Amino acid sequence: MTDRIAKVVVDVPAQETNKIYDYLIPDQLLDGLVPGMRVVVPFGPRTIMGYVLAIHNHSERDNLKELANVLDVQPILTEELIELGKWLSEETMSYYISSFQAMLPQALKASYKKSLHRLAPIEQDALNTLFDGRDYIDALELLEHVSLRQINEAIKRGEAEWDYEVASKGKVKTIQMVKKVGTLDQFDQYLADLSRQSKKQFQLVDYFLGLEEAVPVKEVLEQNKTTKQTLSKLEIAGCITFFQGEVYRDPHQADRFTRSAPLPLKPQQKQALDKINQALTAIKNDVFLLHGVTGSGKTEVYLQAIDTVIRDGKQAIVLVPEISLTPMMVDRFKQRFGDAVAVMHSALSKGERFDEWRKVHRHEVSVVVGARSAIFAPFDRLGLIIIDEEHESSYKQEDHPRYHVREVAIKRGEYHQCPVVLGSATPNLETYARAKKGVFTLIDMPDRINDSVMPAVSIQDMREELHLGNRSMFSGALKEAIQARMDRKEQIVLFLNRRGYSTFVMCRDCGYVSECPNCDISLTYHQRHDQLKCHYCHHQEPMPKTCPTCESDSIRFFGTGTEKVEEALNQTFPEARVIRMDVDTTRKKGAHERLLKQFDNHQADILLGTQMIAKGLDFPKVTLVGVLAADGLLNLPDFRASERTFQLLTQVSGRAGRHDLLGEVIVQTYTPEHYSVELAQAYDYQAFFNQEMALRKAYQYPPYYFLTLITISHEQLLKTEEVARTVVKLLRKHLSDEAIILGPSPSPIERIKGRYRYQCMIKYKDEPNQKAVLKKIIEHYEPLKRKENLSIQIDLNPQQLM
DNA sequence: AGCACGCCGACT
DNA sequence: GTCGGCGTGCTC
């Protein structure tokens, strides 16, 4: 007997439905249905989408319903990805459906349409006339006009029924194509019948006789300067045929890339490549940490390792942080591997993303370069996974499933027995610790390939500047350095980790600070629109002219954002051309690229920006990098603050003097004696690692302890507190005595979007019970979750403690 | 998450 | 008496 039970995960993201359902496979679908396909299934009174995880020959239950339909011709998940999805759900405590959705492009999500289907004339006149010649009415439209009762009565009388339509969201783009189908005889016959005036027809016959493959109709018309009407004559004669052909929305279509050849390698690059190649030939799933300073030539090592992989007939995934997925980076891969590369990043439209994904799915490419989600590329012969800038926080997904791409990469590496390469100048502390322990293989690349030295970093103590009477945001040294670059026609990059104009607005008379009504956070002034904005819930309000409480007019801006720096730059250096780059100036599609190109063409002298300019940029004429306030990150309530500061300062310094001109870095700070500032100045990763590890050990943080962060939120403060307290109590009771449970305490931002937030943290070394306990707690609060909109979020190995 | 069922108060 | 509010339970 054939297997006819499909094991299905249904598209309902809820605790109670987070299980695998059994369906009977009807005869007509039996042929060709395989695991990994999307299906349409009846679920209660409606019809929804689901993923087939397996096909079995028996079920624990009887009275199974039948599958309604199949949405795919080919499976969209491989056996490996099905297992990976299940693992991901368990690992992150997410629903199965959420994991599978996260692994696939948006375009493969289901779209649902509910409508009323008229089967016979309806007694109820109002309802009947509403149909007005149609047989289906959309449910939303329907309910605007008639009551549910009337509809239900019609259904009961058998005059109508609900119809649930399930379709895939994304569309495959097609264009009209034409190809030759006629025989030579047919063409001859056609020519014989033509009148001598039909010049275009003769031309077209000629054209098609010399053509073997299909061509877009548009192209034929353009090339022959004719019209569809004329072309159709040949179709009627049976010489050619029209059809809809699939095409890719290719965002890089217009670009022609000159292919690049592998560059000669320096000894340290050769050594690194050799080690990776060894693992490639041995088919071993080693994890390498490529610790190489900025400019050490990591990318060329990646490129050449991938080359080996491709020549073996295998495939490679390259992950880069979203922010550094710049055209420059993409071009480098396109130049080396041409059409063998698919690119996936968030700047693509949903359709474009879908098409890049389909290239991978059909194995038309061997390399994917992309941001986080590209780790799920449906390759079947994976030979290598590379994660560049592995310390980047964007590799952790911050909503369900809360996965870290590094862990997924290692999992896939195990399955395919392929190496994973993590690259960084400032590795994540946990990664480096694993490398030192020998879990990962450490490869050092300490030298810059062009033998240039790292730029000198000088620290400016802003407290001293203040004592000297300098109340501006530029230290004397920075001001001088900027002026010098301006005089020499060189370029400058300035970095400030805060957008907007001011960080907060305060009344000098009464101390009033404008705060967001929904979030416990002060509002940021944005000069451009003269508005106060909340960066968390996007609330905005006009800037008050006088203090709302005491009506004094001494309401002032405090703190500094990029807008204010821009203004100050224009005042201090009136001749300087400044480009400001932050979320506010790059919101529009393509703005990011445009601004960078402008700067590259030296249409500006100063590039001023937030985090987004810290990575991957490489401009030959930049000889000065200024960090306006290194303390911005340092004072955040997060145990990783020092690490982030060190990483940021090092990354930013790497932007200066990468070429023949000597670079200089100036870091302004109020805490010059902080070790992450001092050691970044000395480019001493080792010392930083040692010092930070000692602190992590003393304060019981990763990598010495694992963390779990639980955030409870609710509209009422009291309820939030109460639940948080109970959660902690339950954890204390059910976890081992070795687990350290902190809290509950208000989250660093106690209220966001009108909801109070409390958190507690578990620090542990080995807690095999933890997930089961957490699951129990979640289940216990399930009713309250539905009834009062309570939310309990669990983040295993959190990267952000906010 | 929907959706049905069922129980209660507010109306013609 | 009927309409519609929402609390409860189920979905192979």
From TrEMBL:
<feature type="binding site">
    <location>
        <position position="507"/>
    </location>
    <ligand>
        <name>Zn(2+) 1</name>
    </ligand>
</feature>
<keyword id="KW-0067">ATP-binding</keyword>
<dbReference type="InterPro" id="IPR041222">
    <property type="entry name" value="PriA_3primeBD"/>
</dbReference>
<feature type="binding site">
    <location>
        <position position="547"/>
    </location>
    <ligand>
        <name>Zn(2+) 1</name>
    </ligand>
</feature>
<comment type="similarity">
    <text>Belongs to the helicase family. PriA subfamily.</text>
</comment>
<keyword id="KW-0378">Hydrolase</keyword>
<dbReference type="GO" id="GO:1990077">
    <property type="term" value="C:primosome complex"/>
</dbReference>
<keyword id="KW-0235">DNA replication</keyword>
<keyword id="KW-0479">Metal-binding</keyword>
<dbReference type="GO" id="GO:0008270">
    <property type="term" value="F:zinc ion binding"/>
</dbReference>
<dbReference type="InterPro" id="IPR042115">
    <property type="entry name" value="PriA_3primeBD_sf"/>
</dbReference>
<dbReference type="InterPro" id="IPR027417">
    <property type="entry name" value="P-loop_NTPase"/>
</dbReference>
<dbReference type="InterPro" id="IPR014001">
    <property type="entry name" value="Helicase_ATP-bd"/>
</dbReference>
<dbReference type="GO" id="GO:0003677">
    <property type="term" value="F:DNA binding"/>
</dbReference>
<dbReference type="Pfam" id="PF00270">
    <property type="entry name" value="DEAD"/>
</dbReference>
<dbReference type="GO" id="GO:0006302">
    <property type="term" value="P:double-strand break repair"/>
</dbReference>
<dbReference type="InterPro" id="IPR011545">
    <property type="entry name" value="DEAD/DEAH_box_helicase_dom"/>
</dbReference>
<dbReference type="GO" id="GO:0006270">
    <property type="term" value="P:DNA replication initiation"/>
</dbReference>
<keyword id="KW-0413">Isomerase</keyword>
<dbReference type="GO" id="GO:0006310">
    <property type="term" value="P:DNA recombination"/>
</dbReference>
<dbReference type="InterPro" id="IPR040498">
    <property type="entry name" value="PriA_CRR"/>
</dbReference>
<keyword id="KW-0547">Nucleotide-binding</keyword>
<dbReference type="InterPro" id="IPR001650">
    <property type="entry name" value="Helicase_C-like"/>
</dbReference>
<dbReference type="GO" id="GO:0016887">
    <property type="term" value="F:ATP hydrolysis activity"/>
</dbReference>
<dbReference type="Pfam" id="PF18319">
    <property type="entry name" value="Zn_ribbon_PriA"/>
</dbReference>
<keyword id="KW-0639">Primosome</keyword>
<keyword id="KW-0862">Zinc</keyword>
<feature type="domain" description="Helicase ATP-binding">
    <location>
        <begin position="279"/>
        <end position="445"/>
    </location>
</feature>
<feature type="binding site">
    <location>
        <position position="550"/>
    </location>
    <ligand>
        <name>Zn(2+) 1</name>
    </ligand>
</feature>
<protein>
    <recommendedName>
        <fullName>Replication restart protein PriA</fullName>
        <ecNumber>5.6.2.4</ecNumber>
    </recommendedName>
</protein>
<feature type="binding site">
    <location>
        <position position="534"/>
    </location>
    <ligand>
        <name>Zn(2+) 2</name>
    </ligand>
</feature>
<dbReference type="Pfam" id="PF00271">
    <property type="entry name" value="Helicase_C"/>
</dbReference>
<dbReference type="Pfam" id="PF17764">
    <property type="entry name" value="PriA_3primeBD"/>
</dbReference>
<comment type="subunit">
    <text>Component of the replication restart primosome.</text>
</comment>
<feature type="domain" description="Helicase C-terminal">
    <location>
        <begin position="542"/>
        <end position="710"/>
    </location>
</feature>
<dbReference type="InterPro" id="IPR041236">
    <property type="entry name" value="PriA_C"/>
</dbReference>
<dbReference type="GO" id="GO:0043138">
    <property type="term" value="F:3'-5' DNA helicase activity"/>
</dbReference>
<comment type="function">
    <text>Initiates the restart of stalled replication forks, which reloads the replicative helicase on sites other than the origin of replication. Recognizes and binds to abandoned replication forks and remodels them to uncover a helicase loading site. Promotes assembly of the primosome at these replication forks.</text>
</comment>
<feature type="binding site">
    <location>
        <position position="510"/>
    </location>
    <ligand>
        <name>Zn(2+) 1</name>
    </ligand>
</feature>
<dbReference type="GO" id="GO:0006269">
    <property type="term" value="P:DNA replication, synthesis of primer"/>
</dbReference>
<dbReference type="Pfam" id="PF18074">
    <property type="entry name" value="PriA_C"/>
</dbReference>
<feature type="binding site">
    <location>
        <position position="519"/>
    </location>
    <ligand>
        <name>Zn(2+) 2</name>
    </ligand>
</feature>
